[in-house]
Design goal:
The complex is a heterodimer. Chain A is of the alpha+beta class. In chain A, about 50% of the residues lie in helices and about 15% in strands. The longest helix of chain A is centred in the middle third of the chain and has 26 residues. The chains are: A alpha+beta, B mainly alpha. At the A-B interface, helix 3, helix 11, helix 12 and helix 13 of A face helix 2, helix 3, helix 4, helix 6 and helix 7 of B.
C-alpha cells in the first residue's frame, strides 16, 4: 500500500503541478485510473482480462488516451503523460506495449461512435435489453447536458455523477474476482490469465475464416454426440492398460480379417454384357456367352464393345481384353494387341474406355511396360504407336494424371502421352481428337442393356453402314443390343441402294438380313414418250394425281401394280415411288415427288427429313448451279439441326464448297467431325482439311489436323497412314520445325521399310 | 461457467443457422478471444492455435444446424472446441507414429541441448513453468482442468460437456492438480 500511496502522490503532484484548471475533477479520473494501474500491477496478464470486464477496454482506452493527450497539451510536456507514468510505476514493458496498442486501436474505433454507444458497448454496465430505450433517452439528455465539455471530461463526469449504481456493480464484481483470485494458487492464476491477440492478427484470422466459410462448401457438419465415442472407450471399456492393448489388438485382427474376407469372398461381382459385335468379331463371339473369366479378342477387321457398371470398353482390330478383376469397387482389365509389342511387325488395334463419371477418390490406373499413370477422365483410349510403344489418349473432359514421370498434371481433352523417338522419352502432346459428352451418353446404361435383345444385322455386301434410330452404330455384319420396341434401321453403302426399314423387336433375338442392290444406271426415256404417256394416263384413268403420273412415267410394265397401290394414297408407297424415280434417273420428277412428301402435313418427321435431304442431294448431284442445292441443305440444317442426315448434310455442304470457298468448307467439315468423331472416314476427311490448311499456309492448324487424323485412324491402311504422315512431314517442314519433321521422317521410314 | 462469456440470443442463432454471415460474425466476436485462450491452454504453446481456432468456428458454422438448444450454446460450443482439439491431437499422434522425419538426427539433438547462457529452469518465468507442467499432464486430464480453472466450470458442467460422470471429472481434476503440483515442486527443488 505504501508503494501505492507513493505512486499516487507522485502522480497527483505531477498533475497538479502542471495545471490550475480547478474545474476539472482529476480525483475522479485518477481514482479509476489508479484502480486499473494497481490491478494491472497486481495481476500481471490478468489486467488485460480486467480491462475487458470492467468498462470495456475500448471505452476506457479511448478515455485514457484522450486524457493523456489533454494533459500533455495543458502542460506543454515534451513526452506524453503515459510515458511519465511508465517511468514512475515501472510496469513491465510488454504490458505497457499491449496496453498502448489496445488504447490506440480502440481510440480509432471510439472516435466514430456517439458517446451513448460507447456505454452501450460496455455490456457489464447496462446488460439488460429492455432498458435500451430508456437508456437512449437518458443518454441523449446527458449528452445534451455535457456536450460542451471535452471528451475525457464527459466520461469522467458520467462516471462520477450519473452512473453511480453501475459503478457500484462494477466494483462489486471486481471485488469478487479479486477475492476469488486471492484464493487461487499462483499457477492457477497463470492458467486463468488470458493471452492478448493483436488486432491485426484477429483481422487475418477473421478474413481467413470467412473466406473458408464462403468458398468451402463440401464439408459435412460434425457428428457431436452427447457421449463421444472415445469417452465411452476411455471410461467404460478400457479400465486397464493391458486390457486396452489386448482389445485394440483383437479389434485390429478382426478388422484385418474382415477386410480380407470381404475382398476375397464377399466382394460383389458386377455383371458385364456384350453390347455390340462388329465385322469379323460376329463370327467369333456370341453376345449371349458367359462373360466371366473370358478373354475377348476383337480379331482383325472387327470390334467388340463390353458394358458394365464402370462404363464401356471398346476393342478394335485385333486388340484383346481379359477381365482380370471386376467388383463394385475394383475393375482391372488386361489389354493386349495383335502381333505383340516390339515384335517383328507393328502392333495393331486399340482399346477405348468410356468410363462413367468418377467420384473424388476414384481413378483408373493405366500401367504400361514403360509408365504408370492415374487417369481421372471419362473417355480415354490406349493403343500402340508405330514403334509399339503405348499411347494413352484422353478425349473428353479435363483429366488429372498422376504419375512418376509427369507428376500431378491436368490434361485437357485432346492431349495424349506419346513416345517421342527423337528424345527417346514420353511427352504430352496436344491436338488430338476430342469427344463430346453427349456422344458418350448415347451408350445405354446397364439396366437397359440387360433388358434388351440382340439384333443381328447382316447384308449381302459387308461394311454397309448401319444407323438405328438415327445413330451410327457401325458396319455390317453387326450384332447390337437394343431395347424391345420399334426401331428405324437404315443400311447403306456407296454404290448401293439405301435400305430403310422399321422393325419391331420383341423379347427374343432378332435377325435382319438385308439385300442391297447396286444402283442401276438410269434408263433413257425421251421427253416425247413422257408426254404421250402422260396424256394417255389422263385420258384413260381420269386421274391427275402426280403419284399416278409418276408411276406411269416409269414406263415399266412391272410397276403397274405399284401404280394400283398408289391410288390408295399409301404414304410408304409414295415414298418408294419417289425412290424408284430417283434411281431411274428421273431426278426432276423425283424432286417433285419428294417435295410433295415434304409438304404433306400427315407425313412422319423421318420421311420429311428424308425427302428434304433427297431434294437437296438430287439438286446437288444434277444441277450445274449448286446455289439452290446449298440453300436446300441449309434449310434442312435449320429445320433439323440434329436430324438423321445432319452429319451427311454438313459433309455434302463441305464437298460443295471445297473448291469454291475452302474456308467455309473447313467450317462444315469441323461440324461434321464434331457430330461423328468415330466415323470410319474421319481420318481421311481430317487429312483433307489438313491439306486445305497447308495450302492456305496455316501450318499450325494443318499440323494439328494431321495429328488428329493419325489419332483417329480406325483402319489399319498403311497407305493412308503413310499419306497422312507425309503430309504432316510437309507441314512441319513448311513451318520450319525440322526437328519434329525429322522425327516424323524417321518414324515414317522405319514403318515404311518394315512394311516392305 | 465463465460469466464474461455471454449466451447468444435465440434470434442471433436462428440468423446464423439461416446462413447469415454477419450474424455469425457477432458470435465470432463474442467467443473468439475465449476460444483462442481455451485452445491455447488445451493444446499448449506448440499448438497450431490460429488454425484450430479457424477450424472451431468453421465447424460451428457448419454444425449450427445440428444445435437444437437441448443444452446451452456455451456448453455446445465447448463440445465443438474439445472435439476439434482432440481430433487434431489424435491425428498428430497417428502422424507421429509413421512420420520418418521424427527420427532423431544430430541437428535436432543439438537444438534440444540447452547452452550455458540459457540458465537453469528456475530462472524461467512461472508462465513457462506452468505451460511445461500442463504439457506433462495427459490430454484427458488436461481438458477438465482447463475447463475448471480457465472456463470456471463446476463438475456438473464439465461432465455434461465431456459426456462422462461427475465422479470421473472429480478424480481427473484431482489427478491433474496433483501432477502439476508435483512437477512444480520438483522444478523448485532443482
Amino acid at each position: 500500500m505504501n508503494k501505492m500511496e507513493n505512486k499516487y502522490s507522485l502522480f497527483e503532484a505531477e498533475l497538479r503541478k502542471n495545471t490550475d484548471d480547478s474545474e476539472v475533477d482529476y480525483r475522479a479520473v485518477e481514482s479509476v485510473l489508479f484502480l486499473r494501474i494497481a490491478a494491472a500491477e497486481h495481476l500481471g496478464e490478468l489486467a488485460m482480462l480486467k480491462l475487458d470486464e470492467v468498462l470495456s477496454a475500448d471505452t476506457f482506452g479511448s478515455i485514457e488516451s484522450k486524457l493523456f493527450s489533454q494533459i500533455t497539451q495543458y502542460n506543454e510536456y515534451d513526452v506524453p503523460m503515459n510515458e511519465c507514468i511508465r517511468t514512475h510505476y515501472d510496469l513491465p514493458q510488454g504490458q505497457w506495449d499491449r496496453l498502448e496498442s489496445k488504447i490506440e486501436a480502440s481510440m480509432h474505433e471510439c472516435e466514430n461512435l456517439p458517446i451513448w454507444e460507447l456505454y452501450v458497448k460496455a455490456p457489464e454496465i447496462f446488460p439488460t435489453e429492455g432498458e435500451w430505450e430508456t437508456l437512449e433517452d437518458l443518454l441523449f439528455d446527458r449528452i445534451r447536458d455535457i456536450s460542451e465539455c471535452e471528451f475525457w471530461e464527459q466520461a469522467a463526469r458520467l462516471d462520477r455523477m450519473h452512473i453511480q449504481d453501475s459503478l457500484d456493480t462494477v466494483e462489486k464484481i471486481l471485488d469478487e474476482r479479486i477475492r476469488e483470485r486471492e484464493s487461487l494458487e499462483n499457477w492457477e492464476l497463470v492458467l486463468k490469465s488470458e493471452k492478448v491477440i493483436p488486432f491485426a492478427k484477429w483481422e487475418n484470422i477473421e478474413n481467413s475464416l470467412f473466406d473458408k466459410i464462403s468458398t468451402d462448401t463440401d464439408h459435412k457438419p460434425l457428428a457431436l454426440n452427447d457421449q463421444p465415442f472415445w469417452n465411452i472407450l476411455n471410461n467404460y471399456v478400457f479400465t486397464l492398460r493391458t486390457f486396452k492393448v489386448a482389445v485394440t489388438a483383437m479389434l485390429l485382427v478382426f478388422i484385418a480379417l474382415g477386410g480380407y474376407f470381404s475382398e476375397r469372398f464377399i466382394s460383389i461381382p458386377v455383371p458385364t454384357v456384350v453390347y455390340q459385335l462388329q465385322g469379323n468379331a460376329t463370327a467369333q463371339l456370341d453376345p449371349n456367352d458367359e462373360i466371366k473369366g473370358k478373354e475377348f479378342n476383337s480379331v482383325q477387321g472387327g470390334s467388340v464393345s463390353l458394358v458394365n457398371e464402370h462404363g464401356l470398353v471398346e476393342l478394335q482390330n485385333g486388340s484383346k481384353v481379359h477381365i482380370d478383376k471386376l467388383t463394385k469397387r475394383h475393375v482391372r482389365y488386361k489389354v493386349g494387341f495383335d502381333n505383340g509389342v516390339h515384335g517383328n511387325d507393328v502392333a495393331r488395334g486399340q482399346v477405348a474406355f468410356f468410363v462413367n463419371p468418377l467420384k473424388d477418390n476414384e481413378s483408373f490406373n493405366v500401367v504400361t511396360p514403360d509408365y504408370e499413370i492415374s487417369v481421372k477422365g471419362t473417355y480415354f483410349k490406349v493403343e500402340p504407336d508405330l514403334g509399339g510403344r503405348m499411347v494413352t489418349r484422353v478425349l473428353e473432359g479435363k483429366v488429372r494424371i498422376l504419375s512418376k514421370i509427369f507428376g500431378d498434371t491436368l490434361l485437357l481433352a485432346g492431349q495424349s502421352i506419346v513416345y517421342d523417338i527423337f528424345t527417346e522419352s514420353y511427352r504430352i502432346q496436344s491436338g488430338g481428337a476430342v469427344l463430346l459428352r453427349k456422344d458418350l451418353e448415347n451408350v445405354p446404361d446397364l439396366d437397359q442393356l440387360k433388358a434388351s435383345t440382340i439384333m443381328s444385322i447382316k447384308s449381302n455386301v459387308d461394311d454397309a453402314e448401319v444407323r438405328i434410330d438415327g445413330h451410327y452404330l457401325g458396319t455390317t455384319p453387326l450384332s447390337v443390343r437394343q431395347a424391345p420396341g420399334v426401331h428405324h434401321v437404315r443400311i447403306g453403302k456407296n454404290g448401293y441402294v439405301m435400305k430403310d426399314t422399321s422393325i419391331t423387336v420383341g423379347i427374343s433375338d432378332y435377325e435382319l438380313t438385308v439385300a442391297l442392290s447396286e444402283v442401276q444406271p438410269p434408263q433413257t426415256v425421251t421427253v416425247v414418250e413422257k408426254e404421250v404417256n402422260e396424256a394417255q394416263v389422263i385420258t384413260k384413268k381420269n386421274a391427275v394425281s402426280p403419284e399416278t403420273v409418276a408411276s406411269v412415267l416409269l414406263g415399266d410394265s412391272g410397276d403397274s401394280e405399284i401404280v394400283q397401290k398408289e391410288e390408295k394414297s399409301d404414304f410408304d408407297s409414295l415414298y418408294s415411288l419417289a425412290q424408284k424415280l430417283e434411281f431411274r434417273g428421273k431426278w426432276k420428277d423425283a424432286i417433285e415427288m419428294y417435295q410433295k412428301i415434304f409438304d404433306n402435313p400427315d407425313m412422319s418427321r423421318l420421311r420429311k427429313e428424308d425427302a428434304l435431304f433427297s431434294i437437296a442431294k438430287l439438286r446437288a448431284d444434277n444441277e450445274e448451279n449448286k446455289t439452290e442445292a446449298k440453300n436446300v441443305f441449309m434449310t434442312y440444317l435449320a429445320l433439323y439441326p440434329n436430324g438423321s442426315f445432319a452429319g451427311e448434310t454438313w459433309l455434302r455442304l463441305a464437298e460443295l464448297e471445297f473448291k469454291t470457298s475452302p474456308d467455309n468448307a473447313i467450317q462444315y467439315y469441323l461440324k461434321y467431325f464434331e457430330m461423328f468423331p468415330r466415323h470410319p472416314r474421319i481420318s481421311e476427311l481430317q487429312n483433307r482439311v489438313g491439306v486445305i490448311y497447308l495450302q492456305q499456309n496455316k501450318y499450325d492448324n494443318a499440323i494439328s489436323m494431321f495429328r488428329q487424323a493419325l489419332a483417329s485412324m480406325i483402319s489399319q491402311s498403311t497407305t493412308e497412314r503413310a499419306n497422312i504422315t507425309s503430309n504432316l512431314y510437309r507441314a512441319l517442314e513448311a513451318k520450319g520445325d525440322s526437328k519434329s519433321a525429322d522425327s516424323i521422317q524417321r518414324l515414317y521410314n522405319l514403318n515404311y521399310t518394315k512394311d516392305k | 461457467m465463465n460469466k464474461t462469456l455471454l449466451e447468444p440470443t435465440r434470434e442471433l442463432l436462428d440468423e446464423c443457422m439461416a446462413g447469415n454471415q454477419l450474424a455469425f460474425k457477432e458470435i465470432f466476436y463474442m467467443y473468439r478471444s475465449y476460444a483462442y485462450n481455451l485452445i491455447y491452454k488445451i493444446t499448449g504453446p506448440q499448438g497450431d492455435h490460429e488454425d484450430l481456432l479457424q477450424e472451431v468456428f468453421f465447424q460451428i458454422y457448419l454444425s449450427l444446424k445440428t444445435f437444437h438448444g437441448d443444452s446451452s450454446f456455451k456448453t455446445w460450443f465447448h463440445r465443438v472446441v474439445i472435439h476439434v482439439c482432440t481430433r487434431r491431437w489424435r491425428y498428430q499422434k497417428a502422424e507421429k507414429r509413421i512420420n520418418p522425419k521424427d527420427t532423431v538426427n544430430l541437428e535436432s539433438v543439438e537444438n534440444i541441448v540447452p547452452n550455458a547462457e540459457m540458465g537453469t529452469l528456475k530462472q524461467l518465468e512461472l508462465k513457462d513453468l506452468v505451460e511445461q507442467a500442463l504439457e506433462t499432464v495427459d490430454y484427458k486430464l488436461r481438458i477438465p482442468l482447463v475447463l475448471n480453472i480457465y472456463g470456471e466450470m463446476d463438475l456438473a458442467e464439465i461432465a455434461g460437456i465431456m459426456g462422462i460422470p461427475e465422479g470421473t471429472v472429480k478424480s481427473r481434476l484431482f489427478t491433474a492438480r496433483k501432477q502439476i503440483k508435483d512437477f512444480l515442486d520438483t522444478t523448485d527443488k532443482e
